Amino acid sequence: MAEAPQQQDQQQQQEEEEEQLQGSAETTEPDEGSEGSEEPDEVVKPARPLLSVRSMSTVDPDDDYPNMIVYRKIEDIVTRIQDETEGIPIRTVKSFMTKIHSVVTGADIVQWLLKNLDIEDPAEAMHIGSLIAAQGYVFPISDHILCLKDDGTLYRFQAPYFWPSNCWEPENTDYAIYLCKRTMQNKTRLELADYEAENLARLQRAFARKWEFIYMQAEAQVKIDRKKDKTERKILDSQERAFWDVHRPVPGCVNTTEMDIRKCRRMKNPHRVKKSVYGLVEDGSQAQSPVHSSSQHCRKGTKEDVQKEILFLSTQLDRHCLKMSKVADSLITYTEQYLDYDPFLTAPEPCNPWTSDDPTFWDLESSKEASQPRVKKWGFSLEEALKDPTGQDLFLKFLESEFSSENLRFWLEVQELKRVPQQEVAHRVEEIWAEFLAEGAPSTINLDSHSYERTSQNLKDPGRYSYEDAQDHIYKLMKSDSYPRFLRSNVYQDLLMAKKKPESEQGRRTSLEKFTRSVGKSLTGKRLTGLMQSS
Amino acid sequence: MGEMEQLRKEAESLKDQINAARKAVQDTTLQEAAAGVAVVGRVQMKTRKTLRGHLAKIYAMHWATDSKLCVSASQDGKLIVWDSVTTNKVNAIPLKSSWVMTCAYAPSGNLVACGGLDNMCSIYNLKGKDGNVKVMRELAAHTGYLSCCRFISDTEIITSSGDCTCILWDIETGTQKTVYAGHQGDCMSLAVSPDFNFFISGACDFTSKLWDIREGTCRQTFPGHESDVNAIGFFPNGNAVITGSDDTTCKLFDLRADQELITYQDSSVMCGVTSLAPSLSGRLILAGYDDFNVNIWDALKAERVGVLAGHDNRVSCIGVSADGMACCTGSWDSFLKIWN
Asked: Do residues A310 and B12 make contact, with C-beta atoms less than 8 angstroms apart?
């Protein structure tokens, strides 16, 4: 009977785990505890705990093990699936001369997920089921490969002791003991697969010196196993095998225990002792994980820290929050404005270069002659107009006609200044001053006295960002003044309205040519002629 | 300890006031406001190209501004520049350290950068005189792994690190210009605003921060996630921030409302988010997950509108090209795929 998840404190958890290590039985089987170790000199804990209760994790749930949230989500589901009333009935299946205990079919699992997880798409249920299987929470009883099949294939649930949320990082010594133990037991179902035999051979070479120790551990485990009830043993064996299928997967299969190396390095608990599956304690000292020098910056709570925090919070409080409705509206408006330009939502014209191998779209985007959609985009914001070289040119021409082109030219020069090599910076700064800001300069820009003051100050130590303030000011000026006039101007409006007819005769011919070329690929000659006639 | 107590109380009271101010502007939710917006419908994208060549996990990729070239970094110790249209490798750059975690393409197309467990950001010049790609600079100062880097121009780059800080570098001199300290956990990723005045960083302290590049100060902090923030990006208009976390959700934070607008989550999504990228209009958010898939979210309605399935291992990085035409995913299965 699965118990509801309980929040237990670490102390209690450890005690209970200790108990289980003595060998309590699975609740679907008659209670049969196993005795303690028979080798008084060996520190071997008979670790064959069988639990249907929730994982007695010694890891504090608040521990920042990155996958913990995911594991808890999966464990909730897995616990529910095994629930007596709401879950799948776990059965015993008769097969030839034997009975297979404690199984469900793959189809059962998929069906349950479909029904109980609010999923409409069966593919979705398969995906979740595969995820659960890949992590080893449920496994096929006759295969090493942990995938879920939506058919009569038989699956069993993993014991919470082996759940990934226990943060197992089993050492090769444990794996060696396991493989060694398997070879000692004379059962066909325990025969090593090819890759396992290879692994064993490799481990024998690697642990040549300790092999006697490993062998003895394996023997001890076998002795303990023998004492168990036959049925219980079969189930335990399969669960143990599934555990190793997760941590030492079949070659070619994804190892789901692989962690992003950025997360591996982060050890909040440097003294976390690496647990052995078989209760081994390294001879001599306790097996301790290396102490990583976790960043010194990440300590909290000194007086300076709190004072800084107060300062920061005060500034935040002073800042004015915009209303959600306003903010939401502006986001919505933006997405709607650019809807036609988003190739994931609106098919690009004339065609998508990725699917048709026709680069016309890219040619049009980069050509000097702007298509109507491009022209339209210039009206969205000054940023868009300036981003497009053709738009920038047109805006500049317009400003020239108004005798205010110095603003844009200044802005462009300052942009360029940010990109030139360091040795040219000082020279450029001077040039810009001479051209735009000095008294009697040929192209004086209209700066307010405050910005002028600050800029003069900045120039005492000329750098790439000396004109930042001035540039900001001029940009705002253009945005609020010249740009709206530009959008209303004839030169822009004419271009914008010219969507029905292309700009020039030549333009029409070329675009028509391109159009027919792309269409012609899929049409017969007759239809093509028909089109030509109708245009 | 009396003073500490008082200071802490003051900080708490300020936090309460800020929360109250945030609540006060909650006159609606994004979902309510977007109720009248037309649905997007099912978004189905196919793999158009598969870029093969890496021999180990791919950890990062970044598009060039021309929307055709891209760079990828893999633990096989190579940085590869791809012409994604032809699938040809333009450059295959061998790295000194194979533990690379991030890569970036300069807007000019002249430089690429990468870094990882070597704690350094290495800048490579693609347009060297003799045609060979060489290391131009090695920016060393971080005391933790390099998790992300992004160019501002050919002369400046910003990096984020496992040492909880971000740094703005002058590439020419190889020196640090500004250190952005404040996070209390490893910085996992960063993104630069469209106007290049700000950048945002996501960290293992479950928060993301907005920084003023020139002033060097943290302008805003966005808490809300329940685990590491692995991925971060700007909404295309520069006014909102999208984050992805190990808590299996993505969130949208607005800079001007100074709070979370919406969470992208689903009970059937049970994996951490590794990477994300918005579509050109911002209407779609493509997020890569540990379960080998990419989920496509309707940004306004917080509904899943599509799935990209095709990788055989975790999707570690994702990027949408500048022209919005294509999405590129990189995976631990060593392949990059172009979708649209």
From this structure: no
How many domains are there within chain A? 2
Residue A444: inside a domain: yes
How many residues in total does chain B contain? 340
**For residue A215, what are the domain limits?**
67-265
- Which whole number is the average pLDDT over A300-327? 85
Q: Which of B14, B205, B246 sits opposite A69 (nearest CB)?
A: B246
Determine, yes or no, domain membership for A302. no
Same domain (yes/no): A261, A381: no
Strand partners, B88: B83
Longest dimension (CA), chain B: 68
Residues of A with Cβ-Cβ distance to B321 under 8 angstroms: none
User: Measured between beta carbons, which residues in chain A are less than 8 angstroms from residue B284?
Assistant: 342, 344-345
End residue of a domain, out of A236, A265, A294: A265
Mutate to test the interface with A, among B177, B237, B300 (most CBs of A within 10 A): B237
* Chain B interface test: which of A114, A127, A299, A331 (most B C-beta within 10 Å): A331
All residues of chain A having their beta carbon less than 8 Å from the beta carbon of residue B168 are none
**Same structural domain, A246 and A112:** yes
With CB atoms and an 8 Å threshold, state whether A327 touches B108.
no
For an interface test with B, which of A327, A338, A356, A461 has the most B Cβ atoms less than 10 Å from its Cβ? A327
Dist. CA A257–CA B290, nearest whole Å: 11
Q: Which of A237, A265, A293 is the last residue of a domain?
A: A265
- Return the pLDDT at A168: 84
Domains along chain B?
Answer: 46-339 (2.130.10.10)
Q: Do A328 and B261 touch (CB under 8 A)?
A: yes
pLDDT tens by residue, A182-209: 998 877 767 899 999 999 999 999 999 9
**Which one of A118, A323, A344 has the shortest CB-CB distance to B284?**
A344
Range from A29-33, A68-72, A267-271, B213-217 carrying the lowest mean pLDDT = A29-33
Say whether residue B33 is in contact with chain A using an 8 A CB cutoff.
yes
> Å from B121 to nearest chain A CA?
16
For residue range A91-127, what is the model confidence (pLDDT) as tens digits?
998 888 888 899 999 999 999 999 998 888 889 999 9
Return the pLDDT at A312.
Answer: 86
CA distances from B260 to B9, B193, B209 (A): 25, 18, 13
**Do the domain assignments include residue A327?**
no
Closest approach of B279 to chain A, Cα-based (Å): 7
What does each C-alpha distance from A101 to A28, A75, A234, A456, B299 come to in angstroms?
10, 22, 9, 86, 48
Is A257 in the same domain as A376? no
* A249 shares a domain with A381: no
Residue A307 lies in a domain: no
Taking the Cβ of residue B241 and every Cβ of chain A, the question of whether any pair is shorter than 8 Å is answered with no
Average pLDDT over residues B169-179: 95
Q: Residues B116-129: pLDDT tens digits?
A: 999 999 999 999 88
Contacts of residue A157, defined as CB under 8 A and 6 or more positions apart, other chains included, come to: A78, A81, A82, A90, A102, A104, A137, A138
Q: Are B64 and B90 in contact (CB under 8 A)?
A: no
ipTM given for this complex: 0.95
Q: What is the mean pLDDT of residues A74-82?
A: 94
Residue A71, Cα to own-chain centre: how many angstroms?
A: 16
**CATH number, domain at A377?**
1.10.167.10
Q: What is the CATH number of the domain that holds A176?
A: 1.10.10.10
Q: Do B324 and A341 touch (CB under 8 A)?
A: yes
